[in-house]
């Protein structure tokens, strides 16, 4: 039965540690990306809400001028 030397075990451990660090770094990058997207979505939602309010005001103004409901 083959045996594993201490240096081979250390090499495996180092590779696993390196791999886990890389995975953790990728996860951190994804989390940062999600936070940025969330902020952008919030900003867009606020802008759309503002435009919707302006549209309601404009619609009321046009209805008042024309006497018709749009």
Task: Give a structural overview.
The structure is a single chain. 87% of the residues lie in helices and 0% in strands. The longest helix has 61 residues, at 6-66. The mean pLDDT is 94. It is mostly helical and 70 residues long. It has one helix at residues 6-66. The N and C termini lie far apart (85 Å). It is rod-shaped.
Q: What kind of sheet is the major sheet?
A: none
What is the number of strand segments? Answer: 0
String of helices and strands: H
How does the helix and strand content classify structurally?
mainly alpha
Q: What integer is the average pLDDT?
A: 94
* Number of distinct helices: 1
Which parts are unreliable, with pLDDT below 50 for 5 consecutive residues or more?
Answer: none
Fraction in helix: over 70%
**How much strand content do the residues show?**
under 5%
Distance between the termini: 85 Å
Q: What global shape is seen?
A: rod-shaped
Rg: 29 Å
Any key phrases for this structure?
1 helix; single chain; 70 residues; rod-shaped; mainly alpha
Ordered list of secondary-structure elements with their pairings:
Layout: H1 6-66
Structure described in brief:
The protein contains one helix and no strands. It has 70 residues and is mainly alpha-helical.
